[in-house]
Amino acid sequence: MNKYYDNFEITSLDTEILEEKDGYYVFKDTIFYGEKGGMPSDEGTINGLEVVELKYDGDTLLHKVNGTLTNPIHMEVNKEVREINTSVQTAFHILDGYYAKRGQYLPAVGVHPNNQWFEVNSKDITKEDLMEVQEFMNKVIDDDVKVTFEYINGKDYYNEKYQHYDLVRIVNIGDLDSQPCGTLHLNHTSQIKSFVILDFEKTSKGTRVYTCVNKVCDEHLKNYYNLLKETGKILGVKKEEVIEKASEVTASNKALKKEVQDLKKELMDLKANSILQDENLMYKYETSDANDLRLIGQSLMNRVNGNKIVYALINDEINFAIVSSSNEARNYLEKVKTLGNVIGGGSPKIVTAKVKANEEDFLNLF
Fold first, then answer.
1. CB-based contacts of 11: which residues, under 8 Å, 6+ apart?
2. Which residues contact 335 (CB under 8 A, 6 or more apart)?
3. Can you tell me the distance from the alpha carbon of 348 to that of 268, in angstroms, rounded to the nearest whole number?
4. What tens digit of pLDDT does each residue of 150-175 get?
């Protein structure tokens, strides 16, 4: 057990090297925490050199820096990163206790600063439930509950899972939560500072709830504010009017899209009239949009007398529509399939499809 992990605010230490192997250092003491137990690694420096990796060899923490170290050793942990990581860990312990009292639990959590979330083993979580969680966490922060640590013999702990350990470290957060844990925690719940529920979604395990904790909330607020401000500039309105303007733009775009679709249909009807005046079975249509053939086919379907095949060369493929008043469209399609793999299909009256084939071979089929 590392005695320094009982006070997350200890972020500076003088010590000495015990061993070095393959660029990894073991020290007499360390204040660094390596990723373990659902908590990210500390960041910081040793003798002014950046710590680039922390990993465990059993219970021994190995340190790697961007350079070479010699005694004496001075360690500095990044205070802001540690505070954020420790706040998330403590907040999720509190939520463990909150949901345990309701017969639920958290099967998974996301603890990294830019991806903070917890998952509840229930798909029945509602927005109202999460509003209660938000109010609960706000009160926990205001109440400034003390966090304490105790060490007991493993054989004396009630849970068999931990009884093979010589010592078990118990983290107690008032009457909110008590559980074995070897990670760093805050000294008081007010040090969480901020806890905000951002969103939630249903998952295969239950409900995932997205959060921001501590100074991450500051970054989210700043980013969302700037996003709102820039969106307002693009829309030409104040940031307070962005939602109203965005709704107007969306409605206008829907109306324009329908207008374009109606105009396109009118244009295809005019093209269909021109095609109907051509007595040949085959009609080559110049377009780069395969959807035009679908629209033309639909326009021709109830007006053609006999059979009509309209085709276009698009990206080295023959896109075509077969329209038949005598229900022969599928029979024509079977002929085209002799040229290769055909993508598409339809009914006896109309078929739209494409095939990668030579234009002359395609025409010779008919």
1. 31, 44, 76, 77, 78, 79, 82
2. 365, 366
3. 22
4. 999 989 888 888 888 889 999 999 99
